[in-house]
Amino acid sequence: MKENRKPVLDIVKVGGQIIGDQAKLNALLERFAQMDGYKILVHGGGKRATEMEGKLGVVSKLYKGRRITSDKSLEVAIMVYAGLVNKSIVAGLQAYNCNAIGLCGADGDTILAHKRPVGEVDFGFVGDIQKVNTEPIAQLIKNNITPVFCALTHDGAGQLLNTNADTIASELAIGLSNAFQVSLWYCFEKKGVLHNIEEADTLIRKIDKKSYKQLLEQQIIGEGMLPKLYNSFSALDAGVHKVCIGDISMLEKDAKEFTTITL
Amino acid sequence: MKENRKPVLDIVKVGGQIIGDQAKLNALLERFAQMDGYKILVHGGGKRATEMEGKLGVVSKLYKGRRITSDKSLEVAIMVYAGLVNKSIVAGLQAYNCNAIGLCGADGDTILAHKRPVGEVDFGFVGDIQKVNTEPIAQLIKNNITPVFCALTHDGAGQLLNTNADTIASELAIGLSNAFQVSLWYCFEKKGVLHNIEEADTLIRKIDKKSYKQLLEQQIIGEGMLPKLYNSFSALDAGVHKVCIGDISMLEKDAKEFTTITL
């Protein structure tokens, strides 16, 4: 199969609770640095953006639980995501001998987005991804430089935009699937997709489209997990090799305790 | 001469007063984007870091007029330099069709520094440059991606460090002189080096080592300009082709109203 001849690329998206906990983040960075081969890290800002908004007296409005990004909260997002969090991760990875480079979607024009159209509500400076320019990313990777993406894109006309980190990870995975055999790793605080969210030992190790439908029918999948699984199948449909969901330990070489999603 | 066969590279350092003024910054970005050939932009944070410290209640200590970088002021520097200022510049350059990539010294391990040793005073998280890794920078440049460096370096052990932007520009210029014929442009609010700092029409168009000595003897050079000229001659001694000092207009194609420094 032609598929097998593509070089392997791992894209790891690290969740907010890990970003917000320095000890967990260090553990993640150490394991990520040890992963062989080509790789990309994607992160949001965790609670640090909210904390910084608090310190600066910036009040984020919500609409049905979803954040509206005002000019002031965009400014905080740029400072925290692209500054504090991204550069701390890059410096941390360098210390673990991983030659990382921190990027937002404006850097190298890697991720173009357009401001979400105003419908029922104006979500403000939120970007929906239009295009991933894979060439500059592939160039970095092939020079053994590891891109670390924060959750910001740009519109090509000078405007930075806040974009969901899960979506950035899956769009990068889809875009890079042309040139690489991409595995997408959603790394967060739980062991993976659980039958019972309260019990860590109810891990579902494999999900495919058929079992996904059953799980949906049985209403087993929690609300927080729904968009992740939806994104995962979109990514798989678009050529991504596999998607894995689990905690930091899933990045270890012989790890088995996580959820693997395939078509 | 072998020198002439090296590709030309322009390194532009943009000063704090331009960074702090959105209209001036846009004008600078537009002109910089129009410059032909390989180029690099270097910037500090202007007054924005001080403003942000004010908003966050971070008090910077000074020692004989020089800032001491506490952990809190380093955090602000990372947010403002690498976040707000760097990414706004990158997004702005993209809008002018210049494919920029924002970097601090930790990105791609490009600029290694060590924390300044504690002597008479502890300057805190300030980095003195040890080494510029030119290879990843040259790779980006040759792929027609324009690096935009902020005034942060790292120590290779996970610590980001605050480093003077003028020094970053001159160390980049020196390091890249092996592979490029480098011109270093210090772009700030004045026309260049002036005989009389109060009178813009007293511009000194050419300075070489001989006239520099005379200017020093006549005590014509203002205190703010002294380190710039000292850095300039160090850079020239170390292989940089020429150093120019002037305002935004010096980046125009047929500009003549600025100071050129040569050996």
Average residue pLDDT of chain A: 93
Low-confidence stretches of chain A: none
**Class by alpha and beta content of chain A:** alpha/beta
The best one-word shape of chain A is globular
CATH architecture group name of chain A: 3-Layer(aba) Sandwich
Largest interface: A-B, 40 and 40 residues
Write structural notes for this entry.
Chain A starts with 7 loop residues before the first strand and ends with a strand. The first copy, chain A, is globular and about 40 Å long. Chain A has one domain: Acetylglutamate kinase-like (Carbamate kinase, 3-Layer(aba) Sandwich), CATH 3.40.1160.10. Chain A is α/β, with parallel strands linked by helices and 263 residues long. In chain A, the strands form four sheets. An eight-stranded mixed β-sheet of chain A has the order 5-8-2-1-11-13-14-12, with helices on both faces. A two-stranded antiparallel ribbon of chain A has the order 3-4. In chain A, helix 3 packs across helix 4 and helix 6 runs parallel beside helix 8. Chain A has eight helices and 14 strands. In chain A, a hairpin with a 5-residue loop joins strand 9 and strand 10. At the A-B interface, helix 3, helix 4 and strand 5 of A face helix 3, helix 4 and strand 5 of B.
